[in-house]
Amino acid sequence: MDAAEKPVLDLAGWNRDAQPQNDFFEFANGGWIKDTEIPADKTRWGSFVTLHEQSRDAVQVIIDGLSAEEGLAEGSEAQKIRDLHRSFMDQAMADQLGLSPIRPILDRVNEIDDKKAFGNVWAMAGRMGISNPIGTYINQDAKDSTRYAVYFTQSGLGLPDRDYYFQDDERSTGLQQAYRAMVAELFRLAGMDTPEQRAKTVYNVETRIAKHHWTRVENRDRIRTYNKKTGKDIQALLPAFDFNAYLEATGVLSQSTFIIRQPSFLEGLNDTIQDIPLEDWKNYFSARVLIDFAPYLSQPFFQAHFNFFNKTLGGQEAPEPRARRAINLVNATLGQMIGRAYVQRHFPPEAKVRMMELVGNLKVAMKESIENLAWMTTSTKVAALKKLEKFNTKIGYPDKWKDYSGLEISSSRLIQNILNAARFEHERETSKLGQPVDHTEWFMTPQTVNAYYNPSMNEIVFPAAILQPPFFNMQADDAVNYGAIGMVIGHEIGHGFDDQGRKSDGDGNLRDWWNEEDAKAYEARTSKLVAQYEKYEPEPGFFVNGQLTLGENIGDLGGITLAHRAYHRSMGEKGEPPLVDELTGDQRFFLSLAQIWRIKQRPETTIRRLKTDTHSPPKFRVNGPVRNYAAFYTAFNVKEGDAMWLLPEDRVEIW
Predict the structure, then answer these.
(1) Which ranges of the chain have pLDDT less than 50?
(2) What is the predicted pLDDT for the residue at 454?
(3) Helix orientation angle between 585-596 and 550-571, rounded to the nearest 10 degrees
(4) By the 8 A CB rule, do 629 and 79 touch?
């Protein structure tokens, strides 16, 4: 069978009663959505999720093989994978131990007798992976990508976002009550008296913290969230907090400067520290410990956590089997260790070669787009082309694997394993300070179904697991591959030039390389995109936040534009391909694109994501960008009066 004849598009999932001119997503995916039930242990189902499940299946096979082995060398990778998995799978041991594995941490919180101890206590929480009001992490200095810097960011909330604490509609107040009930249940299970009153106290503390949190839209602004300060500067913002003790206990006291993402949050936090009684703070930290460790304790703790975070917030009807949750823990803790085995079994070398060809064509398409832009002047074009030329591409897996030799894993001490892993990762991160930037580092594992653009390294990264159907198919014709993985590649390239990515240069440094005229022309286009998306209503009364999702929407529009141009470029002198399933090449391109967003999710999940996710819901990752792209109109004969129609002057064209 010829490659172009292989059944690489799932035409059975169409809705034959829908018209592509009125709702392209429904036309391409409506039949599948109607016939598909979301599994009880999932909040969404579709292309990304099924591929994620395939990845977990592959990891399961690797782990199951190791789990049956005895006599593995102590400290070996195989021993660590096997024993971490065994420690999680021992439900009987978790039930027998109950609260005891985290009792020492709770005792440490209970022993706090002065707010002056907060510096050490909060740092201790950070080293253990326990959330607290100040989040600390290491990353490249956004304005000097040759060095690592310490970043501080707002944190410390139990609900998904600050706005959850202040909305007073019926649904929001119901979630607030359910959250307090969950916290009270955890206190009750921990044997603490007056659990309801303690939960109310915790909620009040979090509300005070949330009051000073920046919004998610504000946190997207890479300029506003870059504030370099000395330790003395920060101490002046937080006089009620022993910041030097915090720095010393965190292991970063040697640094002369730090980057604060939200300075006003620290000022507000200072007042919160002063105003809230010590006993209330102790209840707050006890709750943080209980919430963060509940999924790994006995069944009643796990169930209380699941009932709120998964069922109430996400609509998930039943927990995943423990074996699947074990895979999640191994992936999160020993991701590159298991990734090496995954790549050996599931990533053929020819896939990397084919991907490099696709990426090369997408980069050429971007180069030609920049060169031919009517709205961008020469000086900005030169800088943009220089940035594109410096793009680095990583495909499949790292050239240098993470070293886990310092991490101790036991087969019988699950919580200690989790604490060891958190401490190991903390020390690995802080050890970067003062060292050359490691450009070989990956921030996703090979078995992750995703991709990313990293502005500080000016790189696009595609893990092995996403390079499978329906995203990438070695047997598919170009129309299908460019519509799927080509769109993903173009999307990530587009992030280098979205409303935030455009603020960094080719060396990964945050600086303004745009002239004022071009910046205004760019923002005029993106403001139209914001207005378009804010009209989309995925659930009754809940709309897409056009500002929050702007970067991803720009990426989607750029992804389609670049992928389609690269597809036509790949034809060379061959001309239009023959019809397949009575579809033209362009029609197959757009249908392939729609198929990768074939996702069905529960209403609760959609609503939560609308408030917290920078991505638009799946339907609008298809309909949103194609409405702005002229070739789609031609491919499906979209005319004025059709629901997918936008007046030419209302369409947004950036690249």
Answers:
(1) 1-7
(2) 98
(3) 150
(4) no
Which pair of structure tokens corresponds to residue 75?
A: 């400290």
pLDDT of residue 575: 78
Domain-wise residue ranges, the chain: 10-37+46-57+335-647, 114-291
- Give, as one character, the DSSP assignment of residue 583: B
Task: Give the residues across from 510 on adjacent strands.
Answer: 504
Q: How many helices (H) and strands (E) does the chain have?
A: 28, 9
Please give the Cα distance from 529 to 523 (Å, whole number): 10
Q: At what angle do helices 378-389 and 349-372 cross, to 10 degrees?
A: 170
Architecture label for domain 10-37+46-57+335-647: 3-Layer(aba) Sandwich (3.40)
Give the per-residue pLDDT at 574: 76
Distance CA 233, CA 228 (A): 9
- Going across the sheet that includes 452-454, the strands are 392-396, 459-463, 452-454
Give φ, ψ of 600 to 5 degrees.
-120, 130
pLDDT in the model for residue 2: 38
Q: Is CATH 1.10.1380.10 the classification given to domain 114-291?
A: yes
- Position 573 scores a pLDDT of 67
SS3 of residue 66 by DSSP: helix
CA dist 62 and 207 (Å) reads 44
Name every residue whose Cβ is closer than 8 Å to that of residue 20 and which is 6 or more positions away in sequence.
27, 28, 636, 638, 644
pLDDT for 6: 43
Report the side by side order of strands in the sheet with 257-260: 134-141, 144-154, 257-260, 227-230
The tokens describing 472, both together, are 């990438």
Enumerate residues 6+ apart whose C-beta is below 8 A from 592: 8, 9, 470, 479, 480, 481, 482, 483, 484
Whether 186 contacts 167, CB under 8 Å: no
Which amino acid appears at position 243 of this protein? F
Residues 494-518: pLDDT tens digits? 999 999 999 999 999 999 999 999 9
Specify the pLDDT at position 4.
Answer: 39
Place of tokens 């529009």: 557
Residue 347: CB atoms within 10 A of its CB come to 21
Q: Which of 205, 166, 339, 211 minimizes the C-alpha distance to 284?
A: 205
Q: Per DSSP, what are the bridge partners of residue 148?
A: 140
DSSP letter string over 128-171?
Answer: HT---SEEEEEEEETTEEEEEEEEEEE---SSSSGGGGT--SHH
Quote the DSSP letter at residue 307. Answer: I
* Tokens read off for 38: 């979301």
Which residues does residue 10 pair with via DSSP β-bridges, in sequence order?
A: none
The SS3 call for residue 189 is: helix
